[in-house]
Amino acid sequence: QTGTLTLASPYAGWPGIPVADRDHTFAFYARTAVDSAVSVGARMAYLDDDGATLSTTTGSVVVAGTGAWSQVLVAANADTGSAYCNLTVVASGASAGALLYLDEFQFEAASTPTSWTPGTGVLPVVIEQLDENWQWLWPEYRERPAFVLTEDTS
């Protein structure tokens, strides 16, 4: 059996995880309950502001078994013009009815994965500029506000 698992979007129309032009790592751990060997890989796809795919990188395939947890990872640098990143798990070689366990997902701004800790990884953003003067549009509604976000690297 072969399959892919795309991580769920938090809402409809979500373009992906916002990213800046820097190194990123997507890592997790895998193991099986039935099959002695299932090939598992991690994939990152960078997209531009319009949602068009700029590049896709798949990490080395790891053979997960019934014993110890195996770390699966992919590392890449965001392409110039990247605005978002989507993450996918790919697996092959499983028999019908096989179970594949995945744990400790981590996406971070780094060239190699760090120790897993809940709630870490992607750098926070700060509001750099916010126009507080909303324009009135004819006849009875306001135009949406505009603001600029910057990734906080401190």
Give an overview of the whole structure:
The protein is mainly beta and 154 residues long. The protein is 0% helix and 50% strand. The protein has no helices and 13 strands. It has strands at residues 2-6, 17-18, 23-32, 38-47, 53-58, 62-64, 70-77, 84-92, 100-108, 125-130, 136-137, 141-142, 147-151. The strands form four sheets. Strands 1, 2, 4, 5, 6 and 8 form a six-stranded antiparallel beta sheet that branches. A hairpin with a 5-residue loop joins strand 4 and strand 5. It is elongated, with a radius of gyration of 19 Å. The N and C termini lie far apart (45 Å).
Question: How does the overall form come out from the CA principal axes?
Answer: elongated
Order of helices and strands: EEEEEEEEEEEEE
Largest sheet: 6 strands, antiparallel
> Strand content of the residues, in percent?
over 45%
Q: Give the beta-strand count.
A: 13
N-to-C span: 45 Å
User: Structural class from helices and strands?
Assistant: mainly beta
Helix coverage percent of residues? Answer: under 10%
Low-confidence stretches: none
Q: What is the arithmetic mean of pLDDT?
A: 82
Gist?
The chain is mainly β. Helices cover 0% and strands 50% of the residues.
Can you lay out the helices and strands and say which pair or pack?
Elements: E1 2-6, E2 17-18, E3 23-32, E4 38-47, E5 53-58, E6 62-64, E7 70-77, E8 84-92, E9 100-108, E10 125-130, E11 136-137, E12 141-142, E13 147-151
Antiparallel strand pairs: 1-8, 2-8, 3-7, 3-9, 4-5, 4-6, 4-8, 10-13, 11-12
